[in-house]
């Protein structure tokens, strides 16, 4: 039903310049450089004291924000449950008082 359309390259319009002519140049042999020093396969991470403090501060901030959000959601659920229970008690009381009057 839905098939992607492959775009086609439009034909150039207007003034088209011919491609530039590349002239060969001479190759000069360079002095071979010393082989690079061997590197380990594992990258090393160096943490400065400032970076450690920033990481700890950022982690603490994230934990506090997530904790505040979760506590507020739990509080909202608790308040909703209490209000529903209160409404149920009021409606039950109204129904029983209506049956007593008859």
What does this structure look like?
This protein has about 100 residues and is mainly alpha-helical. About 50% of the residues lie in helices and about 0% in strands. The chain has one helix spanning about 50-100.
The largest sheet is:
none
The gross shape turns out to be: elongated
Distance between the termini: 67 Å
The low-pLDDT segments are none
Helix count from the secondary structure assignment: 1
| Alpha-carbon Rg, integer | 38 Å
Instruction: Give the tally of β-strands.
Output: 0
Beta-strand fraction estimate = under 5%
Helix content: 40-55%
Mean pLDDT across all residues, rounded?
A: 84
Look at the helices and sheets and give the structural class: mainly alpha
Helix-strand pattern: H
Give me a quick take on this structure.
The chain is mainly α. The chain is built from 1 helix and no strands.
Short descriptors:
102 residues, mainly alpha
Write the layout of secondary structure elements.
Layout: H1 49-101
């Amino acid at each position: 039903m839905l098939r992607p359309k492959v775009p086609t390259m439009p034909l150039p319009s207007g003034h088209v310049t011919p491609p530039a002519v590349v002239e060969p140049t001479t190759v000069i042999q360079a002095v071979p450089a010393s082989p690079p020093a061997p590197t380990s396969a594992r990258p090393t991470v160096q943490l400065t004291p400032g970076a450690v403090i920033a990481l700890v501060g950022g982690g603490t901030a994230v934990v506090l924000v997530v904790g505040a959000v979760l506590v507020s959601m739990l509080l909202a659920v608790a308040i909703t449950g209490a209000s529903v229970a209160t409404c149920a008690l009021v409606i039950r009381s109204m129904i029983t008082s209506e049956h007593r009057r008859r």
